[in-house]
Design brief:
The structure holds two protein chains of two kinds.
Chain A lengths: L1 H5 L7 H11 L1 H26 L8 H39 L2 H7 L4 H40 L3 H10 L3 H27 L4 H32 L1
Helix pairs in contact in A: 2-3, 2-6, 3-4, 3-6, 4-6, 4-7, 4-8, 4-9, 6-8, 8-9
Chain B lengths: L2 E12 L2 E12 L3 E5 L6 H8 L7 E6 L2 E2 L5 H8 L2 E4 L11 H11 L4 H14 L15 H13 L5 E5 L7 H18 L2 E6 L2 H7 L2 E6 L2 E6 L1 H5 L4 H10 L3
Parallel strand pairs in B: 3-8, 3-9, 6-7, 7-8
Antiparallel strand pairs in B: 1-2, 1-4, 4-5, 9-10
Helix pairs in contact in B: 3-4, 3-5, 4-5, 5-6
The chains are: A mainly alpha, B alpha/beta.
Chain lengths: ~230, ~240
């Protein structure tokens, strides 16, 4: 599947790629923002609870910042995309498969790998790291807000600690994870979709498998990438 | 005459069920051949093998002189550009309009918009769907969907046209309309046509030659006039017991 998709570069359908870029980016922003905001706030509150008596709360920005940029931002974004975009891709392709629409494309001489699969994988791989950056920003902002209003840690203190302990490696690591997660989610979801069998029941099974396998492989690749970069 | 489609000793099984058991036949250029047989005999499987959608367990298929299971995928896609396939389910793109469905093969090849409009308008008129190009697929009846599917298969003027049960599930009036449209297109275009059906009237009215598929094999090969004269006991028996046609 990957070979056929990549070999389709020469005949990319620009409009399909832009459609998929929009689907992954604009349409996912709200849910990613919401999840990142609440995660940032709860991370502040719970981190404060964990370090209370052990470390000064002035260091909260450092710990929360690292947690969000290295782990929570990328993984949370990926799990949301696995549920939202992964399910959508798998069910759309699965429906096209069981209603013979993919076969119809094939017999017209139109390659579904080039016209449907590759644009989705490309869009997911390009957009996920950008969504990770957005989630990082939302998470850190909401975390600073929660720190200020619930824990009385001033913004200046929070961000000073964050910047003092921020390494570019943390940020790059998150981006690399985003790229890998985007690729994993779209590839698995496309694979599940185009290999669907048994009608409506099959569509449901493929969609469910796309979400489960995407999520599992996101966590697995998170461990592998994390071990390589930070291990 | 040049052979457009040739099959050699095709075998196909699904688990323990043997569907095709040594199918060999030739279809010459410009010929209309019907593959007739009762439901579940493997007609659709055979048609899908002919376009490379299903791989046979054994045997060979040559389309336009090329062994389609021993060529590169890009070559197979190129060959398919010259094949029109009308699916039993119509297989229309349900998120697109009638116009977009028919124009699809041109749009992906980036054909000039004016040319696309002209070709789509022409084929819509041929299938009696003029003025309905903006309807969504979900707004169409079964018969209309079938006409759009025929239009989509023929709009690129392919050399070989394959019909899979074109009249299945249609009411008698719509069925006659589809037969009339197919008859008109077959007579006008003179393209090589393979029709898979269990509808005896379709077979007799639209084909030059009829292959009777039975228990995975081509049991008999007859002309429409021979069928009408009742020369095949198998076919008479089939249509007496099944009420086919």
């Amino acid at each position: 599947m990957l070979y056929y998709s990549i070999s389709g570069v020469a005949v990319l359908r620009k409009d399909e790629i832009f459609k998929q870029l929009e689907f992954f980016s604009v349409n996912s922003l709200f849910i990613v923002a919401l999840a990142a905001a609440f995660t940032g706030m709860v991370t502040s509150v719970q981190s404060a609870y964990q370090i209370m008596g052990l470390l000064p709360l002035d260091l909260l920005g450092a710990g929360v910042g690292k947690m969000i940029t290295i782990e929570l931002g990328p993984v949370l974004t990926a799990l949301i995309l696995a549920g939202r975009a992964g399910a959508s891709i798998a069910s759309e392709l699965a429906t096209m498969k069981v209603t013979e629409q993919l076969d119809a494309m094939e017999v017209m001489g139109v390659d579904p790998y080039k016209h449907l699969i590759f644009p989705r994988i490309l869009a997911g791989t390009l957009i996920t790291p950008l969504l990770v950056v957005f989630a990082d920003a939302m998470g850190i902002l909401s975390s600073s807000l929660a720190s200020k209003f619930m824990l009385e840690v001033e913004y200046s203190v929070f961000f000073a600690a964050f910047l003092e302990h921020f390494y570019i490696k943390d940020f790059i690591g998150g981006i690399i994870k985003g790229i890998a997660f985007g690729f994993v989610i779209t590839s698995i979801s496309c694979f599940m979709g185009i290999n669907t069998r048994e009608g409506a029941k099959g569509v449901g099974i493929s969609t469910m498998r796309a979400v489960i396998y995407s999520s599992v492989f996101v966590l697995l690749s998170d461990y592998i990438i994390g071990s390589i970069i930070y291990g | 005459m040049v052979d457009t489609a040739v099959t050699y000793n095709l075998h196909k099984s699904f688990g323990d069920t043997k569907v095709l058991d040594g199918i060999s036949f030739k279809v010459q250029r410009g010929e209309a051949v019907c593959i007739l047989g009762r439901s579940g005999v493997g007609k659709t499987i055979l048609l899908k093998i002919l376009v490379g959608l299903i791989r046979p367990d054994q045997g060979k298929v040559e389309i336009f002189g090329k062994d389609i299971f021993n060529i590169r995928r890009s070559e197979l896609l190129k060959i398919r550009e010259n094949i029109g396939f009308v699916f039993q389910s119509s297989a229309l793109f349900d998120s697109l309009s009638v116009f977009e469905n028919i124009a699809y093969p041109f749009v992906v090849k980036k054909v000039n918009t004016d040319e696309i409009k002209e070709k789509v308008a022409k084929i819509l008129e041929m299938v009696d769907m003029k003025g309905l190009e903006n309807l969504r697929v979900s707004e169409l009846s079964g018969g209309m969907q079938k006409r759009v599917a025929i239009a989509r298969a023929l709009v690129t003027e392919p050399e070989l046209i394959l019909y899979d049960e074109p009249t299945l599930g249609l009411d008698p009036v719509t069925r006659n309309t589809i037969i009339e449209i197919m008859k008109r297109l077959t007579d006008e275009k003179k393209k090589t046509t393979i029709i898979v059906t269990h509808d005896l009237e379709v077979a007799v009215r639209l084909s030059d030659r009829i292959l009777f598929l039975y228990e995975g094999k081509v049991k008999e090969e007859l002309t429409p006039s021979e069928i009408l004269e009742g020369k095949s006991e198998e076919i008479v028996k089939l249509f007496e017991t099944q009420g086919g046609g």
